[in-house]
Amino acid sequence: MQASALFGVLAAVIFGSSALAQSKALVTEEAMVKSSDPGIEIYVRNKRPADMTSFRPEQTIIYVHGATYPSETAFDLKLDGLSWMEYIASRGYDVWLLDLRGYGRSTRPAEMADKPDANAPIVTGETAVKDIGSVVDFVLQRRNIPRVNLLGWSWGTTLMATYTTQNASKVERLVLYAPSWIRQTASLVQAGPGRLGAYRTVTREQARERWYTGVPEDKKGDLIPVGWFDAWADATFATDPVGAAMTPPVLRAPNGVVQDGQQYSGAGKPYYDPAKITVPTLLVHAEWDKDTPPYMAQALFPLLTNSPGKRYVQLAEGTHTIIMEKNRLKLFEAVQAFLDEGRKD
């Protein structure tokens, strides 16, 4: 797949007073990648060391988001001077993120310009996996490499795992952060009563309430450092100007994932066959996760019967969104250790 437009390239040295800041020059690129459907383009962002001149599968990674929010406002959100994307890139990796159609900076399907109930749910897992495939092929071609590492969060774990079962030859390692599996408890992603429409809307307060679900009362006070929620919410809701102009401001999110959840995980049916994953796989999540509770990873892990060197890590004192909480470095370190095992230098 070809990029239809390159927004620009910039080199940035990441400095700061924070102990987390990295003194490493990184190059940033952005592009729109043509999807398998006419008129639909997928936003991608790349960060890598400025002095990186050769590219290898084990040092290339692509990230995809979950059911509701886009990639860059979590994976590449600077908190205390550092984003997770930069953390990985500064360690010698070629790091990519993408927004599925209907999310973030990617093309919004035409149905999102209409009322939610005017159309059936859009952007199902089948469609999302095709978008991931378009981006993987773009990166493979651009870097002239045969494989990449894949990293998914929440619904993104289902998508990246499904892609891997279908394209094992293109995947080096698979990281599933907050892995989703067959559900035994109610989903926190709610589309409201009545007929399931094309998309749903979320307010900042709903997002905040969902984030804190399951956190012990005496732990809520310092879970999210001061200002971090607002930084994330400001960046996230700004990606949907149409929703931001509503009263109250909302973020619109496609409902294909909700429909899939009703038909598969919510009905006791697996979306993909874990036995078809034949690459090293990491399952990592936090103990207070109520979106994809610990029982999901615990049920999924033994089903990865053909994953060599599979790994399961549970992190203390964190939620589904530990990526942006006080203990986020524990997530970063666990994933980095798994990725670094695959390096040949």
From TrEMBL:
Secretion signal, residue range per the UniProt entry: 1-21
Single GO MF annotation: hydrolase activity
Source species of the chain: Bradyrhizobium guangdongense
Name under which the protein is recorded: Alpha/beta hydrolase
Domain of life: Bacteria
Residues in AB hydrolase-1 domain copies: 84-326
Keyword Cytoplasm attached: no
A Pfam family recorded for this sequence: Abhydrolase_1
Record bears the keyword Cell membrane: no
Alphabetical UniProt keywords: Hydrolase, Signal
